[in-house]
Amino acid sequence: MLVVIGAFGTLSLAIVWPFRQYVLLAVLIAYLLTPVYRRLVPVTGETGGALALMGAATGVVILPFAALLSVVASDALDLAQRLSDSDIDLEEVESVIAASTGREVDLSTTLGTAGENFAGVLVGNASDLVGVFTHALIGITLSAFLLFFFLRDGRYFTEWLFEVTPLPDVVLGELATNVDDLMWAVLVGHVLVSAIQGLLAGIGLAVTGIPNAVFWTVAMMLLALLPVVGAFLVWGPAAVYLVALGDPVAGGGLFLYGMTVVGLSDNYLRSILVDRRAQLNPATIMLGVVGGLYLLGVMGLFFGPVIVGSFKIAIETFDTYYVDR
Length: 325
Known about the structure:
Its main location: membrane. The protein is mainly α.
């Protein structure tokens, strides 16, 4: 029987795997909206509450995300075009590098070629982009469909899982409570801190005149999911770039702003919203983020730390209930 379960489980995973991003997106949104859903049920009923939140999530989350994605794509194309046309003055940067290292670097040619290659990839793979858009449209529809059922029937699925899992109720209860605390800390706290940090850093870039601020802000929001380094990978080089262009005031101001406002917001908020509740070492979170990104794609940024942290919780629970002292 175990062989049969394993075989069908493997086949089921293979069927779901191509749309894992959208399944996990539905899980993420359903988890965040479940407290709201429970408040709506006495008024609207289970089906009505799930339908209302599915529509709200589509309008509030998915559509604005698509609009933001279009702005980011436009900024990325503009940046690629500027690099291709050598519209960004890099002579000052080249002279600083030459004075510091004694080696001449032709950044204009290098970045211009990179921009041409990037634009060529986009144009040359237009048919592939249509396929990607179609896949995304199907996936978003699937996410909305799954979100409805995750909200309406999630409680019944949890009850079924408790019934079929061959573990004592006290062990299952502790596992569920600890994993729930971990998920809330990582999915809400970690993402919220990253969004705030990226937004603050983006304001600094916009004020100091760094072009394509929307693109870099979104990039910093994603990079901020990585503890310690995070958004510094963008605003740090941007400060150096401003100094190299002969604007030390703007460059120094951006650096100080990043070290104080952005850096302190990361340390303070992350310690309150994530580290204390999740009880995960920053190295563990980074490993989960990077590994999750490779395994699960974009949604792995959120679920990677949850998976690694759940493994830690499982070991601790096993040690508590099954290891003889």
